[in-house]
Write a structure and sequence with these properties.
The protein has 275 residues and is an all-alpha fold. It has one domain. Helices cover 66% and strands 3% of the residues. Helix 2 packs parallel to helix 10. The two termini are 37 Å apart.
């Protein structure tokens, strides 16, 4: 397994999460996302944190890999925390600088929201990108949405586009790193100066990144045409999906987790997050 793996890349393995049916993984991911947004107090977040840690253990994926996958969201998490700390009001005032006031409730709110973002990324990565190949994800999505094909919805094309987008996330991240290193070698500075100067410094990165992305898209389209790819009509599958008992067990377990979170929100006291 590669230890410097980027966010969105598949990690080969034979864990129970790797063996789950991709259709079950998609359903579980949707339920888990809903459950994460239903969580309102410290107790529910503690339960979801323990559950996510259990998923990491079951997957057998290195913590270093997972930490590397969280790097792209550090800015979003930091920005969200700052907004909540400095603009959230409450009853317990900790810092009063006239213009800036920091409340204890704001710190709790910031912490829980950042935790929600981290759990969201880690849990969905465990069920989808880290343990599911792009091909399996396409098959699962297409099978789940197959009833919509009867009313003219291009299910296969939609599934293929989504899978290709997920697949190229790590590629574009890696490409961005290479471009930044090349620009730094030419004397570019991305850390000093004001906001306008830093924004201008990003332009030499964005332009070659877009050129590279369009070139890769063209190469992929050419390769698909050379292999006579025509979409979903008449296509057969080498691996036919078959749900097993543990697929249903995982779906029921996550559903039960959602019910537990709702009950804990109602009957257990504690600080309640507002977002």
């Amino acid at each position: 397994m590669k230890m410097d793996i980027a966010f969105g890349q598949y990690c080969e393995g034979n864990s129970i999460l790797h063996r789950l049916d991709p259709r079950a993984k998609l359903i579980i991911s949707i339920i888990y996302i809903v459950v994460l947004f239903l969580a309102k107090n410290v107790f529910t977040f503690a339960l979801l944190t323990l559950t996510t840690m259990a998923l990491v253990i079951l997957s057998g994926i290195s913590l270093r890999v997972i930490a590397g996958g969280l790097k792209p969201i550090l800015f979003i998490a930091l920005f969200t925390a700052i907004i909540n700390i400095f603009f959230f009001t409450g009853d317990t005032l900790l810092v009063d600088l006239k213009i800036v006031k920091i409340y204890l409730e704001g710190l709790f709110n910031a912490g829980l929201i950042v935790l929600r973002i981290v759990l969201l990324i880690v849990s969905t990565s465990m069920f989808l990108t880290y343990t599911t190949t792009p091909l399996a994800l396409t098959d699962g999505m297409e099978r789940l949405l197959s009833p919509l094909a009867k009313i003219g919805v291009p299910v296969h094309d939609f599934s293929m586009m989504m899978t290709i987008a997920l697949r190229f996330i790590p590629t574009l991240i890696e490409e961005t790193g290479k471009i930044m290193n090349a620009q730094k070698a030419r004397g570019a500075d991305f850390t000093s100066g004001g906001l306008i100067k830093r924004a201008r410094a990003i332009i030499p990165i964005i332009i070659p990144l877009f050129v590279s992305a369009f070139r890769r898209a063209g190469d992929l389209a050419t390769a698909m045409e050379c292999r006579c790819y025509t979409g979903g009509a008449g296509r057969t599958r080498m691996n036919v999906l078959h749900a097993k008992w543990y697929d249903f067990a995982f779906v029921l377990a996550v559903t039960a987790l959602g019910a537990a979170v709702v009950l804990m929100n109602i009957y257990l006291p504690g600080y309640t997050v507002t977002m």
